[in-house]
Amino acid sequence: MEPLSLHFLHEATGARFMDVGGREAVAGYGNGEGEYRAAHEAVALHDASYREILRITGEDRASFLHGMVTQEVKNLPVGSAAYAAMVNAKGAMVADARILKREADLLLDLEPGTGTKVREFLDKYLISEDAELHEATGEWALLRLLGPGSAGVLAAALGGAFEPLAHQATRAASLGGQDVILVGNTALESHGVDVWVPRAGLEPVWRALAEAGAPHGLKPLGFETLELLRVEAGVPRYGQDMVDTTIPLEANLASAISYNKGCYIGQEVIARATFRGHMNRKLTGLLLGDADVAPGTELRRGEKKVGWVTSVVRSPVKGQRVALGYVHRDSLEPGTELTLADGTGTAKVAALPFTA
């Protein structure tokens, strides 16, 4: 397990650690309820430096990646970010990525444990293009701010007013004496901001944000609470809710797909599925009551298998266990009651995101 760069700092605050994709992450800081409340009512700071980063350079970097992902890259403005899927020739996912387009390179933010897989996938198709792939996890790392106090914390840390960032909008800044890139990330929470930090400067940036956030009620937030927020927001995670047989449209990733960009690996399959107008199964929400359900549990309607569970959390919003899972299109109507194949109870289909 690759240790966190800031392990010593988190350990000093009583953090508990876990493995995520072969990399160390903070599981929690001993007060999950307080972390959750901070993310909703104040501000929370998450160390996401366990994520992997790939850098692409060369004259043809944008056109090459453009042909490898479902999203627009060539016409993506410099200084912008975008979320994309990588699929094989059969339209099934290889990985997902958040792409940051800079003047001299492209940075790909990847789920932990997928960096080698993504590099091998891209390298397989890199033949005559002037593009080079570089492992950059040792160069860059991510911190994440969540909660309505995020803008106030950044304003205090930057020493001036901070205009909130729209989703995927970026801004260069200096924090803790380090040049950083701020990227709006409202997928889980409407005020979220990702801070791209040179890995060597993680400690001063973390301390600068923590100090600026103290008057705003900032709390550090662990991976377990981040997962709770993710599931409540209905956002799938590759490796948990998406695997190498998932077609992006099944996972509600329409926003990761450009239909005007032209050819890319797997484009014909995605286009056919879109033209057909439906997928045989889709990711949806599930209400579980008090049933303690494991990911992978089959869902049945009568004697027929109609899906399976992928992520399970206990939701403060719903006051019960909730889940993400794939369900056959004939059983997707909210309120549809399904049976858990392990015999622990029933699951009721619910719209995403989960709201009160």
TrEMBL record:
<feature type="domain" description="GCVT N-terminal">
    <location>
        <begin position="6"/>
        <end position="261"/>
    </location>
</feature>
<dbReference type="InterPro" id="IPR028896">
    <property type="entry name" value="GcvT/YgfZ/DmdA"/>
</dbReference>
<dbReference type="InterPro" id="IPR027266">
    <property type="entry name" value="TrmE/GcvT-like"/>
</dbReference>
<feature type="domain" description="Aminomethyltransferase C-terminal">
    <location>
        <begin position="281"/>
        <end position="354"/>
    </location>
</feature>
<protein>
    <submittedName>
        <fullName>Aminomethyltransferase family protein</fullName>
    </submittedName>
</protein>
<dbReference type="Pfam" id="PF08669">
    <property type="entry name" value="GCV_T_C"/>
</dbReference>
<dbReference type="InterPro" id="IPR029043">
    <property type="entry name" value="GcvT/YgfZ_C"/>
</dbReference>
<dbReference type="Pfam" id="PF01571">
    <property type="entry name" value="GCV_T"/>
</dbReference>
<keyword id="KW-0809">Transit peptide</keyword>
<dbReference type="InterPro" id="IPR013977">
    <property type="entry name" value="GcvT_C"/>
</dbReference>
<dbReference type="InterPro" id="IPR006222">
    <property type="entry name" value="GCVT_N"/>
</dbReference>
<dbReference type="InterPro" id="IPR017703">
    <property type="entry name" value="YgfZ/GCV_T_CS"/>
</dbReference>
